[in-house]
Amino acid sequence: MSEAVIDDIVAVLPPLLNALEALGFFQRHLHPLAFASVMNAIGTPDEALQKAHTAIGDWPEQFGGLRERLDRACSETRAAFAGIREVERGNGDLVAVFRALRHVPRAQEALYPLAAQFPPVSSFFLNDANRENGDLLSRLEVGPGEHAGIFHDHNEPGSRGGFSVYVPEYYRPDRAMPLVMALHGGSGNGRGFLWSWLRDARSLGAILVAPTATGPTWALMGDDSDTPNLMRILETVRSRWSIDASRMLLTGMSDGGTFCYVTGLDGASPFTHLAPVSATFHPLMAEMADAERMRGLPVFITHGKLDWMFPVQTARQTQAALSTAGADVTYREIDDLSHTYPREINAKLLQWLNGE
């Protein structure tokens, strides 16, 4: 690799990764009433990224693919910042913020293939507790084999009913891994929601499946076209990779969390654990659920005290209803969480799934 290329990479990676970390902080702590304070907390890492990105020079043709990925990661990150800066200036609302944040998973998707080449990128895609884990880092240095990495099945942006999969680079067919099926929130998609879980699946060893609903959101009313589709996806994944049938977690955010209840409480559900996050629930779900299914079913409920969409009282009532119905409920209430995804819960969910 030429010296000029190396110099450009060394110059642009730190501000790019810093900017992405800042966007992650912003996503986690976003609350309509706290928008200004969260913006103040993240500072202006986009300015350093813009400076480094625009300073990248011409690269030899053989590095075109690398340059394209780095460019796209920088451009998507800057686009996310540009969108939230517009709202900061008074031009737009919360919907515009969510629209801007769609650029974040696109930036991560562009950047991830560079993890095998650049240790700082590989560390970025690990959870905080494992970024200095030498054994894990050495196992990841090999890069993905034929059966590992990220795969998309009819899950292009804008499509419905497909799914994305992440299989840890150190996957071995002779060792069954736990499975996490993570359901996105309303109007979202699995290709984007994959990145809410990838760091922890990669750090702790789980096969991650992120489906996309068949409609605008999950089938919470009327005909349920999503449960059959999830079963199709699960069958496809289990036919390709070795899954531990005793450790299959269904989790989801907001509407995805609510659909965890809708499909996961059915007596025929193959999932061994349910973990809805920031979800809503109707007591009739517990009354109508299969009694045998409910008996001792492990359910981990996570909700924020500041949730402005589904008030926390809903989650407290859900805990009581499910416990009364016989489920084995773990309840986690997070003081500073509004209606956003708390990625810090993922490691705890995997430990719970593994019986630790």
List the helices and strands and how they pair.
Elements: H1 3-29, H2 35-42, H3 45-54, H4 64-88, H5 94-101, H6 103-111, H7 119-124, H8 134-140, E1 149-153, E2 163-167, E3 177-183, H9 190-193, H10 198-204, E4 207-211, H11 226-240, E5 243-253, H12 255-264, E6 273-277, H13 283-288, H14 291-294, E7 298-304, H15 312-324, E8 328-334, H16 345-353
Parallel strand pairs: 3-4, 3-5, 5-6, 6-7, 7-8
Antiparallel strand pairs: 1-2, 2-4
Helix pairs in contact: 1-3, 1-4, 3-4, 4-5, 4-6
Description:
The structure is a single chain. The chain has 356 residues and is α/β, with parallel strands linked by helices. It folds into two domains: 3-106; 142-353, Alpha/Beta hydrolase fold, catalytic domain (Rossmann fold). Helices cover 47% and strands 15% of the residues. The protein contains 16 helices and eight strands. It has helices at residues 3-29, 35-42, 45-54, 64-88, 94-101, 103-111, 119-124, 134-140, 190-193, 198-204, 226-240, 255-264, 283-288, 291-294, 312-324, 345-353, and strands spanning 149-153, 163-167, 177-183, 207-211, 243-253, 273-277, 298-304, 328-334. It has an eight-stranded mixed sheet with strand order 1-2-4-3-5-6-7-8, sandwiched between helices. β5, α12 (255-264) and β6 (273-277) form a beta-alpha-beta unit. α1 (3-29) packs parallel to α4 (64-88) and α4 packs antiparallel against α5. It is globular, with a radius of gyration of 21 Å. The relative contact order is 0.09. The model has no long low-confidence stretch (mean pLDDT 95).
